[in-house]
Design a protein that fits this description.
Helix content is 47%, strand content 4%. With 497 residues, the chain is mainly alpha-helical. The two termini are 44 Å apart.
Amino acid sequence: MKIKKILTVLAIVVLVGSCDKGYEELNVNPTKPTQLDPSTKLTFVQLYTGGSSYVAYLFWNVIHLMQNIQHLNNTSYVSFLYKEGNTHQFFEEQFSNTVKNIVDLEAQLEASESPTVATDLAIARIQKVLIFSRLTDIYGDIPYSEAGKGFLEGIRFPKYDKQSDIYADMLATLESSAAILNAGGASSYGSADLLYGGDVLKWKKFANSLMLRLAMRMVKVDNAAAQAWATKAISGGVMTSNDDIAYTKYENSANDGGPNVNPLTKCFTSRAPTQVKISKTLMDFMKDRNDPRVSVLFSTVDGDTDPALQFGQDINNPERGVANSKPNINIFGGSGVVIYDAPFFFQTYAEVEFMLAEAAERWNLADGDVEGHYNAGVTAAMEYLALYGHGVNITPTEISDYLAANPFDPTEALKMINEQYWVATFGNGLETFSNWKRSGYPELVPAEVATTLTGGKIPRRLPYPGSEKLNNPKNVEAAISQQGGDGLLTRMWWDKE
């Protein structure tokens, strides 16, 4: 579906009054709306949830997070590894664009008398949870209850809420929103909804699937609450196939740096052949298991996907050579190949199946069928790659052969489930990073520079931006105090030993 390019920023019309009675009407343009349509705002928000600029995405996701969890070795950018440079990008980008507009959309719908307002508002609130869950999982305590209310309520310097409080509210919001959608009302968004085209059933499944993700985050800090929310999510109905995946498809627009083109593939497209290499950690894991995804996710610099030609680059090797593999330039772009309109995934059905497998292992939920959900997760993780197009197709035979050669081992259930989650979320560094912190899998060895930069450890979060410390110092200082620090190794509420 073509996305209509948004060329202007959302505007607020300020009515300027006259000092003379009776002349107020002359100062108002009767053809100019005082509010944009909610569907237009939703489109804007969904595009910016993916990222307003590929440059920002390059620094916080590709250079930092995807290196941290060793999907990539960024060669010429290896100097950023385990350092705080450019860790502010995600915070500043999302709060300045996405947050303030989703909060504005929510307020507009709360005041609306539209016959579809209940459903439209429920969808907007699920989108809001997606936005804030990504932010808090990177930074920990963040502005939440007062965020985005500079214009609406004059709150220019929002307080930072505790992550535990943010999670409690997000989960309650997902529960209430899913209940509203379960009633079956219609949405007015239609094709303006870039994730699901206004499909209420798919939004309900996404709400419960997102609830399951948040529940699993809490297993170390509050196992009882994690189990309770996972139970609610599963009983409410989570994703059941790759048709339910939450993703956006972008435009094939060569002159657009964002937000109308995929920020991940734009990052790969804009890098030289000697940059952005596949980590040896990931490559060896997959090749050791004869994973058919090797020929889908990886390629040589000239686009050859023969598995025998794929080699990963050691995390400690900063050389800018061309020999080692890149993300497959045929579907991700790079080395002169341009892919702007690839899909951008927020949550996949494969992730849900792996979480169901873990819930079955931990609490005997999801019918207690750990192996069944694990196998379904691996299958979905291989099949959904077809959404990238360009002839990607892993056959049922290849999948069954892989599962037969690498059978599920109940004695290593959590390890196998979360290692596959690690592979399945390639490209979504934020989700991979969060799940690695939560689960401890895969067991990664820090790069050598960690000895001097981070005490021999892989980072656990991104620090707050300097702009916040300059403009909102009182609230930032309070957040740092209540969180116990603001370093790369500071552990947030749910990230316990």
